[in-house]
Amino acid sequence: MKKNYNDLALLILRLGFGGLMLTHGIPKINRLSDPSGFPDPFGIGSMPTLILALIGEVLAPVLIIMGLKTKLAAVPAAITMAVAAFVVHANDPIGTKEKALLFLFAFVVIFLAGPGSFSIDGRKGR
Q1: pLDDT tens across the length of the chain (126 residues)
Q2: First vs last Cα of the chain: how many Å apart?
Q3: Which end of the chain is more exposed for a tag (fewer CB within 10 A), N or C?
Q4: Contact, 65 vs 15, CB < 8 A?
Q5: C-alpha span between 10 and 27 (Å, rounded)
Q6: Distance (Å) of CA 36 to CA 62, 65, 79
């Protein structure tokens, strides 16, 4: 009998990339008390930019890990990584923007493939 490991693969992808993204986002929470110096590539201010980064690097990954509103949560996570790679690190060498690109690709795959059955979203669908 042939086993289908797609749902397990999606679980590993969600847990791995969601969890690793939290290691980048959680330290940014401390910057809420003093966001000065936080990159502001769009000129909207350091605090609004920091809040958007926290949505993409903390809130969205937590939802992705749980598999709750996964496709919706993958959008701000992917956008945050696209901004990091193509705006904040636009003039940096590929080695510097590599992490952001890897996260971007993973969140796009999660958006396209969905959470799989080992998720809250997957359980609701049954």
Answers
A1: 567 899 999 999 999 999 999 999 999 999 999 999 999 999 999 999 999 999 999 999 999 999 999 999 999 999 999 999 999 999 999 999 999 999 999 999 999 999 999 999 988 765
A2: 23
A3: N
A4: yes
A5: 26
A6: 26, 30, 22
Angle at CA of residue 42, ends 72 and 60, nearest 5°: 20
Q: Which residue has the tokens 């605090």?
A: 47
| C-beta of residue 56 within 8 angstroms of C-beta of residue 79 | yes
**What would the two tokens of residue 95 be?**
């080695």
Q: Which residue shows structure tokens 């986002």?
A: 25
Each residue of 56-85: b (16+ CB within 10 Å) or e?
bbbebbebbbbbeebeebbebbbbbbbbbb
Q: Are 28 and 61 in contact (CB under 8 A)?
A: no
What 8-state DSSP symbol labels residue 38? S
